[in-house]
Write a structure and sequence with these properties.
Number of strands: 6
Largest sheet: 6 strands, mixed, barrel
Function: Lytic transglycosylase with a strong preference for naked glycan strands that lack stem peptides.
Distance between the termini: 46 Å
Shape: globular
Radius of gyration: 16 Å
CATH topology of one domain: Barwin-like endoglucanases
Strand order of the largest sheet: 1-5-2-4-3-6
Strand content: 15-25%
Helix content: 10-25%
Organism: Paraburkholderia lycopersici
Family: Belongs to the RlpA family.
Protein name: Endolytic peptidoglycan transglycosylase RlpA
Keywords: Cell wall biogenesis/degradation, Lipoprotein, Lyase
Oligomer: single chain
Length: about 180
Amino acid sequence: MAALAGCAMPSGPQNQAAGDALRTKDAAFAAPQGYGSALAALPASGTARDNSLANAEAIDESSPDVHSFHQIGRASWYGRAFHGRRTASGERFNMQALTAAHRTLPLGSYVRVSVPGTAKWVVVKINDRGPFARGRVLDLSYAAAKVLGLQHSGTAKVNIEGLSRQEAKAAQADMVAANSNLDH
């Protein structure tokens, strides 16, 4: 459980005045119900390389297929306070990587996250558990939040679309191509 708590809140005293802070009595679950039957943690990749758009991590054949998953909800992001900490998958959190935390999706799966009413979207790898704040369904890395344009607002309503391995590969290639067109 300590690994999960590490991604939820930075160390030190927490501000309880906000009113939306997680309290033990508010927790409606002891353990999240998994999506499908592939909730078991996958082995860590063992790398801490830069996963920016230009160096997006290759999608391998062991990535879980979650193509039938769809969810709409509020996403937030986490960054510097957690950079370098272990995630639920065993990887070290890299705030510049395109990753996210979800309560139930299989670790190692890929999703397309989009902001309704805009053309902004990003493909992220689920490598952590969370968010642990009420009313939120996804915690994005800083890099993913920046692609979606929510690094300043902090949260936004998003659509989450599960991807098969083939869909994730194609979407990731589209994302890299679109980004490289912006650079020229």
